[in-house]
Design goal:
Blueprint lengths: L2 H10 L7 E5 L3 H16 L10 H8 L5 E4 L8 H12 L8 E5 L7 H12 L5 E7 L7 H5 L2 E4 L5 H10 L4 H7 L10 H24 L4 H12 L2 H17 L13 H10 L2 H12 L7 H16 L2
Parallel strand pairs: 1-4, 1-5, 2-3, 3-4
Length: about 300
């Protein structure tokens, strides 16, 4: 059975939902959306298929009294937060027939916090369910993985995301740009699009200034910004470098960021395509350690290496 089929089967039978489910995949935003959707299904008293009832809306927004969210504080999920979740799970439901705790970014569990989870993952009780999400399942303790039913959540295809934005009335150009954002259904899509364009412009300006003027400072500032950014934002650097690597000998229609083709072509005049291609590959290979300092060093290495040409 495919991972998608497994998740849908579990969603269709809340009464047989596992005590602990581990959702993994490349998109933290999509994993969170899926975890909240499943939590709403578990907590909904009427089984609303559209998830529009008051209970489902409160669950998906994180304000249901029988839902507990465990999130990283800084670079780690602390043991105190896990203990609060355990105490929550031991209590009786307020409204629903069961209780749910979602652990977002489970790869950031500290060792003590991870060990504290183990017994509850194995025996959470009849009315309590854990839903864990992770973009790096391989870094979790084997004992945690072994106690969870695992399901991988793949990214939607770019074509599907473009079609979704088109159906909401966006132009083809805007839909193509929004297709690179996560999640593909934001509350304020217009603002998200403008934010995306501004961020892309900042990356291009830093690259153009640093490389054309042989200045380190703009590249170091960009590395610091990338270290703080979410994956859907850091991915823009990789895509711009990849576009520049192919722009010299390819049609502009093949570029992911056609709207800034002129800026991309300027990069091709500053660096050879092979250098840009290797930089794109290296930029995409972000270290597994989620500490901000390590991410900053990673992006510094990518960007400063471009100055060595």
């Amino acid at each position: 059975m495919s991972a998608t089929a497994l998740v849908e089967r579990l969603a269709g039978r809340p009464e047989s939902f596992p005590g602990a489910l581990l959702l993994s995949g490349p998109s933290a935003a999509r994993l969170e959306t899926e975890a909240r959707r499943l939590a709403a299904i578990l907590l909904c008293p009427g089984g609303d298929p559209d998830r529009r009832c008051d209970c489902c809306r409160r669950a998906t927004s994180g304000f249901h009294p029988d839902l507990f969210l465990v999130e990283p504080q800084g670079v780690q999920i602390r043991i105190d937060t896990v203990r609060d979740a355990l105490a929550f799970g031991a209590g009786k439901p307020y409204e629903a027939a069961r209780r749910v705790a979602i652990v977002l970014g489970a790869e950031q569990l500290g060792l003590e916090a991870a060990n504290a989870l183990l017994k509850s993952l194995e025996e959470p009780g009849r009315h309590f369910h854990w839903i864990l999400t992770t973009t790096r399942a391989e870094t979790l303790l084997p004992t945690i993985r072994s106690r969870c039913v695992a399901a991988a959540i793949a990214l939607e295809s770019r074509a599907d995301r473009v079609a979704a934005w088109l159906s909401l009335g966006f132009s083809e150009e805007d839909a193509a740009e929004l297709a690179g954002l996560e999640p593909p259904a934001q509350k304020d899509a217009r603002a998200a699009l403008e934010e995306h364009r501004a961020w892309r412009g900042e990356i291009l300006l830093a690259l153009q200034t640093g490389l054309s003027q042989r200045r380190i400072a703009p590249l170091l500032l960009l590395a610091e910004a990338l270290a703080r950014a979410e994956p859907d934002r850091t991915r823009v650097l990789t895509e711009l470098l990849a576009d520049a690597a192919t722009a010299a000998g390819a049609s502009g229609e093949l570029l992911k960021h056609r709207a800034v083709a002129r800026g991309i072509l300027e990069l091709t005049r500053l660096l050879p395509s092979e250098t840009l291609r290797l930089a794109a590959l290296k930029a995409a290979d972000v270290p597994a350690d989620n500490r901000r300092g390590n991410k900053r060093l990673h992006y510094e290495s990518v960007l400063l290496q471009l100055l060595q040409f």
